Each structure stands twice: as structure tokens, then as C-alpha cells.
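Study the following:
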Amino acid sequence: MPVVVIANPKGGVGKTTLATNLAGYFASAGHAVMLGDTDRQQSSRAWLGLRPASAPAIRTWDISANQIARPPKGTTHVVLDTPAGLHGWRFNDVMKLAHRVVVPLQPSLFDILATQDFLTRLADDKRVRHGEVEVGVIGMRVDLRTRAAEQLQRFVAGLGLPVLGFLRDTQNYVQLAAHGLTLWDVAPSRVARDWEQWQPIIGWLEQPALARRPAA
């Protein structure tokens, strides 16, 4: 059972946007997906409360923000949204569950500096070095024509981590989230440009290595 963790110690970088849309993708593909939320703000859980019954089902589990539990039987895919300031026992528990860690990162100098230590820690983590957990970075709200995008790519490359893709700054995410929806719940023509940006991310997540690892 693949467990994908969305993590960045800095707040406001798009973790919940990534988590909800990734869960929406798995649900649209027919998987029994669970969206876990260990953030005290419980943004992902609140979003699930807005999700219409007609949309592909995404489940959650009833746990507190201070507890990380194993998902119940029957779940085939898990997406875990994590809080800002992820460290200590919570970081260790998340890494024990994770098959892959996705780090959303905005291309500003301040965001890069705030995330640098976390990415270094991930790259040095024993489970990552042994290939038990794979880590990838996604540039959020990025215009690829800017110098900031080049700076982000150079920074991540220096850590030896892959940049999975870049997602543009668009109201599509905001408007869909307000109704408990994702890119995968509306007509493709409405979000064609965004679907295209997600393709390399989905390709990385669906690599066979993810499916081969023993269940958590």
C-alpha cells in the first residue's frame, strides 16, 4: 500500500493543495484512497467536509492531530498531509509510514532558505539513503520563465533530489477547493494546462518501485 507524505516545515507553501489533488487523482483512478491530516488546522479534513457525494470517494480516519495511525484495512493508497514545523517524533513516525515524500516549495529565496535544513535532513535520512523512501520536490506557484524558477532548480539539484514538476499560480485550485473538488473532478478542457503540469508528477508516483515496496 503506497503512502505518500506531503511535507514542508514552512507553512503556506501549498501542502494541502497538493495533498487534496493527489488524493483526488487516486480516487478518480478507482483506488480506495485515504487522505490523512496530522495538521492541527485540519485543512484537509475541512476540505473533505465540502466534498460532494457524487465525487469519487476519499476517506479519512478519525484521529487527533497529535496521533499518526496506520490506515484501516481495505485502503489501497494513502496521502498524508502534515503540519508546518514537522520534526522530532512526528517526523520519525511519518517517515516510518512513508514510501514517498513530496516537498512543495515556492521559488522565493526566503522559502528556499526556510526549507533548506529540512531537505538536507531528508536527503541524509537513513531510509532515504537506503532507498526505502523516495523524495521529490514540486515547485509551487512557479512561472518557468522567471529567474526564480532557475534558482529553485539549481538549489534542489545541489541536494541530489529530483524536481518532479512545477505547478502554476492559478485560481483553478482555489475555486475547486472551495467546493471540495480537485482537478480530476471537472471536465478536462477546463483544467487542461494544469493536467499537463501534473503528468511528470503522476509518472514518478506511479513508478513500479512504489507498488513493490511491502505494505506499511
Q: What stands out?
A: Residues 109-124 form the longest helix (16 residues). The chain has one domain: 3-208. The domain at 3-208 is CATH 3.40.50.300 (Rossmann fold). The mean pLDDT is 84.
